[in-house]
Structures are given as C-alpha cells and as structure tokens.
Amino acid sequence: MLGIGAVPSALLALMVFGMPESPRWLVMKGRLADARAVLAKTSDTPEEAVERLDQIKAAAGIPRELDGDVVVMPKTKGGQEKQVWKELIFSPTPAMRRILLAALGIHFFQQATGSDSVVLYSPRVFQSAGITGRRPLLLTSTAGMLACLIGLGTGLTVVGRHPDAKVPWAIGLCIVSILAYVSFFSIGLGPLTSVYTSEVFPLRVRALGFALGASCNRVTSAAVSMSFLSLSKAITIGGSFFLYAGIAAIGWIFFFTFIPETRGLPLEEIGKLFGMTDTAVEAQDTATKDKAKVGEMN
C-alpha cells in the first residue's frame, strides 16, 4: 500500500522522456534548428515562434542575423557550472542579487505566513475557536463552494458573450468567486476529507480504507484535470463551472443525508453511526484474535 504513492511519480518520470528540451537550453547549446522546431510546436503562430527565438538568441548573446541550424557557442572559462555559481551566488551584480532575493523571498513567505498550517490544521483552529463539528463545517464549505461556482459560471458566461467589450461587474464576480471558493474549500472539504477518512474506518481496515479513499481522490483529480479543456470547449468554460456546481449540489445532499457527525466520539464508537452493531464488532474482533492465535501457533 505504501508503494501506491510512488505510482504517480513513476508515471511522471516516464512522461518526462517524451518532453522536448527547453528552447532556451537548446539555444545555449547552439542548436538553433531544434529550438526553432520546439517553438513552432509551442507557439500560437509562426510569427510568435520567430519573435521568441530572436528574444532567446539576444539573451544568449547570439546575433539576430546568425540563423544557421547549429552555431558554435563560446566556452566560458572555468566551465558553465562554475560560471553560473559565480554569477548567481558568489559575485552577483546588484540586479542579479535583487532577482535572487525576490525569488527566495516569495518562496520563504509563501510558507512562513502559515499557509500549510491554515489549510492542514484548520479543523484544530476551528476547534480552538469553539467550532468542533465536522458535519457543519463540511456542509457550510460545500454550500459556499456551490454558490461560488454558480457565481463563477455566471461571470464567465457573461464575459464569453461579450468578447469585444469588458464587463466590469462580471470580471469582478469571477475574481470574488475564485477567492471565496478557495476560502470555503479551505475551511471544510479540503482538510476534512483526510481527517474524516482516517476516523470512520475500524482500526483493522483503516490503512486499506484510507488508501482506497486516497486512490479515489487521485483518480478523480486526474479525470477532472484532464477533461477540463475538452469540457470547456464542448459546453463553454462557464458551462463547465455550472456543471461543477451541479456536482457540488449533489455532494451537499450526499453529505447531509449520508455523512454522520463524529464529534466527541472515540474512534471505536464511530462504526456504530454507520450501522455497525456491537455483535458485528465483537464477531470481527474475535475473528481477528483467532487469526492472531493461529499465527502464534504456527
């Protein structure tokens, strides 16, 4: 089961072999023809590909009029890697130092501001604030996401119907809906999914049950991510979010009718909320003990 987490990484590693080299790296190696071919595939128009190649050549110090398939790049003294370390770390220019500081700063503050703590430990934060129920947070979160998806679908539909004219209120509605959606997701459905899954399964099947839930999560995520562009082309991007809103409505009904509150219950008692009787629990516990005894005898 622990090896399941390696499957996406293995697939990604295999897919990397099919990825083209960066056109900037190709230009740095003097392989202009290969860079031109990559840009032709990734640019919207041939003119854009030519413009981007000229920009990359200028940044690499290659004259614009030099347009062969392969050019000889001057070798830097001491090797390229040493030159990069010197330019970036040991003796950077003021501009390079500012660029490095900006990059390190944005990464530092992304984490130091407590983003992971807010998302991952929001149930504990709400508990400290006196909000201890799983179910109310889940229902509130899903209802808020539903409203935001409707707002986002409405805004995008209006914008799509007026491609030549800006509609300020529709653009504002899209921005507010996205920000509110992330907020509602972070207070409930985001962190509570793993918390709830780790609570509801009996101890003897908890590891496998959690693995199955995580697998369902990843498969659904992949399906949604890979189908979004095709879906938006088929029913428009606004229609896609209306579809997600419909799914969110079904999810709210599912949570309301099927998901019981687990607040204040020990893990051993949660199974009863789903109809697991004491007799069933005792029978399964007895079977587990018998298997353990057989294993000891062997």
From TrEMBL:
<keyword id="KW-0813">Transport</keyword>
<dbReference type="GO" id="GO:0016020">
    <property type="term" value="C:membrane"/>
</dbReference>
<keyword id="KW-0812">Transmembrane</keyword>
<dbReference type="GO" id="GO:0022857">
    <property type="term" value="F:transmembrane transporter activity"/>
</dbReference>
<dbReference type="Pfam" id="PF00083">
    <property type="entry name" value="Sugar_tr"/>
</dbReference>
<protein>
    <recommendedName>
        <fullName>Major facilitator superfamily (MFS) profile domain-containing protein</fullName>
    </recommendedName>
</protein>
<feature type="transmembrane region" description="Helical">
    <location>
        <begin position="167"/>
        <end position="187"/>
    </location>
</feature>
<keyword id="KW-1133">Transmembrane helix</keyword>
<dbReference type="InterPro" id="IPR005828">
    <property type="entry name" value="MFS_sugar_transport-like"/>
</dbReference>
<keyword id="KW-0732">Signal</keyword>
<feature type="signal peptide">
    <location>
        <begin position="1"/>
        <end position="18"/>
    </location>
</feature>
<dbReference type="InterPro" id="IPR036259">
    <property type="entry name" value="MFS_trans_sf"/>
</dbReference>
<keyword id="KW-0472">Membrane</keyword>
<dbReference type="InterPro" id="IPR020846">
    <property type="entry name" value="MFS_dom"/>
</dbReference>
<dbReference type="InterPro" id="IPR050814">
    <property type="entry name" value="Myo-inositol_Transporter"/>
</dbReference>
<feature type="transmembrane region" description="Helical">
    <location>
        <begin position="137"/>
        <end position="160"/>
    </location>
</feature>
<feature type="transmembrane region" description="Helical">
    <location>
        <begin position="241"/>
        <end position="259"/>
    </location>
</feature>
<feature type="domain" description="Major facilitator superfamily (MFS) profile">
    <location>
        <begin position="1"/>
        <end position="263"/>
    </location>
</feature>
